[in-house]
Fold this sequence. Notes:
Layout: H1 19-29, E1 34-41, E2 48-54, E3 57-63, E4 70-72, H2 77-89, H3 99-122, H4 130-134, H5 142-168, H6 174-184, H7 205-216, E5 223-228, E6 233-239, E7 249-255, E8 261-265, H8 272-278, H9 280-284, H10 290-302, H11 304-333, E9 350-355, H12 360-371, E10 376-379, H13 385-390, E11 393-399, H14 411-417, E12 428-435, H15 444-455, E13 459-460, E14 465-468, H16 472-483, E15 500-509, E16 519-525, E17 539-542, H17 548-558, H18 564-570, E18 594-597, E19 607-612, H19 623-631, E20 637-643, E21 658-663, H20 667-680, E22 685-691, H21 701-710, E23 713-720, H22 730-736, H23 738-746, E24 750-755, H24 760-772, H25 774-783, E25 786-790
Parallel strand pairs: 9-10, 9-11, 11-12, 12-13, 12-14, 21-22, 21-24, 22-23, 24-25
Antiparallel strand pairs: 1-2, 1-5, 2-3, 3-4, 5-6, 6-7, 7-8, 15-16, 15-20, 16-19, 17-18, 17-20
Amino acid sequence: MLSPGVVTLVPDGRPLLPAPALAKKVLSQRPSAEIGRIIVHDNPSRAAWISFTEGGERQTNYVEPTTGRLLGSGRGDGFFEAVTDIHRYMALPDGGNGWGRQMTGFAALSLVFFALSGLYLRWPKRPLDWRAWMVLDLRMSGRNLYRALHAVVGSWLILFYLVSALSGLWWSYGWYSDGLTRLLAGPEQAQSLPQSRSDDAEPDIAPAWRGFERATQGASYATVTASLRSNGTVQFRARHHDARHHRVSDELVIDGVTGAVISDVPYAQRSWGQDIIVSIYEIHRGAYFGLIGRIGLTISSLLMPLFTITGFLLYFTRRRRKRALRSTIQDVTGTENGAPALPGAEGSSTIVAFASQTGTAERLARLTASALPGASVLPIRSLNAVRLARTETLLVVAATYGEGEPPDPARSFARWMRRPARDLSHLRYAVLALGDREYPDFCAFGHHVDRWLHDAKAARLFDLVEMDGQDEDAQRQWQQQLGGLGARVDQPDWAPAPMEPWRLIERRVLNPGSHGAPAWHIALEPPVPGVSRWQAGDILEIVPRQNSHRIMRYAECAGLDLTETLTAFLSTRILSRGMEGATAVEALRPLPHREYSIASIAASDRVELIVRECVAEDGLPGLGSGWLTAGAAIGDVIEARVRTNPGFHPQADPSTPLLLIGNGTGLAGLLAHLRAREAEGGAPIWLFWGERHPDHDAFHREELDRLKALGVIAHAEFAWSRQESERAYVQDRLAARGAALRAFITGGAAIYVCGSIKGMAPAVHEALVEIVGDDVLEAMADSGRYRRDIY
């Protein structure tokens, strides 16, 4: 295209000259030239090509095929030669004898390594499913998109990269080319190489050409290349018409003096190994596989920068997560070098194990361990039979990597889990599963660990918590569940969330005269009426405030003069013991949030809660309950936000019957489902709920009676733990109705449990196991028909 009239010609109708005649014409124009190679075509629109040495310098020229007139070099020849030198030798001095050749050889070896190691890391869970290899989901975002581009596009192109690298090594290492030749073609491949004459005669193209024509019996070829060798022979490569690449040719070696045939290897007689060896250059540039191969290799070359870019993006993402991990370690341990200063695993009965790929799971595991007194944190691969036998409580933070696979450091533990399950009935456990909903096997490894521990008869403390990416809701849910296990309640939020101003509009005691702690009905109005939305099962998070008496105690111990501004500041901070002498109150951490099940539905445009009044260790009201039940006045602003809780949301099909079970303030979570079913219609509900005494602790009795009269509640049973005549707990009521409940559940009912993690939840679970069986209950949990919101 760049050289019309030089490389491409307009045919003039004259006959094409044979190679000897062209050589003679060239020598008449350059008498001192020594011809090295000549290429002729049977297409009159293409110029012949010749290389020769003149004055010790190698030159190339195009030749008019009908007259033998030298046409000069093609435009851009210098540029393309420079590109070739860069590709082969990095354009370094000494060409193939210098360092450049070794550098390109090392680059080719590196490409083989990255392709094969990437294939290993990429290997999907279902290797026979072509979609797992080839489908690129562009709906992904962030790190998931970078990884998908890196992995899926790499799967598309890996064969091209391996072909490029493995064939490119041919020109870099003699041991490689010799070994490949012996492997594929055998020692007899030497017959295709030019053989030396016994004398030192210079080869002549004329007798050699006559010998070539005799040997090929005048066959027609698209292109003939004649290379004159220093050993007195002429090597001919005659390319067939319609050849898919240049090495689909007959290979002959002719004596350059006598015209005798030294070797003749027609293309049709080559073995497959010989064909690969002879065609290694065509394989390297993709032409061996036809037009599709050349296009594929071109595209793969153009896309090579994609892997640089996505690789760096993944690297920087991981660095950010590692920085967050180091920050957490420093906060938790007080060290900056990453050395965990937590209690050793050897003497601890509470273990927090993590399976982390990028550091997120380890960060959450360390935060978890710091919240639990005496807990130790270690990688999940460190768990073994001996350690598990000494452990009483195991908390697992497990990430899922790739197509439902364990993180790389957890692969050995995943293999260990394939062995027959041990008896871990002494163990209590919970799992935080990290994953990404953009992948079909969401949190698969976490679910695998959860099922393995359950099958080993370990007792589940609370339902597995799924965390999607950096899901702040899931982090706070896990943190809240830890509170039920005795975790520190003075920790700030792990994932701070923006709060909004809700207004306290109603408050009344639900159990006047009760011997238990007061339970309050609390109602809050959203910041903008008609805008806030939530579902049954969702949670309201509130920012508490310190009790005024506690603030005064702290100020007195710290020697502070309280002002209105300082009082407001201290009301939002953790006033930890031992901090009274702090000179900088700014170092005090913010108060953690508190969570409460929402009892109302969004259509009411108000959030209703049931809050039990609690007393802190210092004898003053608890942070959250004290603020809601006494500290805040009607009309005051409560900083709060709604947290979605998909694990306790309603069934998608409202025709699904519901079995609602709970105790105490857990009625709030159940009441939301009752109200949603009343508003939207659907199948009837059975309710089992327990409290202290029917005379004082029957929360929302009037509404429950109304819902029963409407048929929303088809059956209700209440357990009163302080009623002398019929003292019972909710699990006792379930056991007494075992046969009816079995029929109700196997008939399609879904189970929702809301209430205390201590006592009620495990006892109810055991009662349900006795009624329907553990396998049925686990299957219901997997399908979303067994849901729990316990705290």
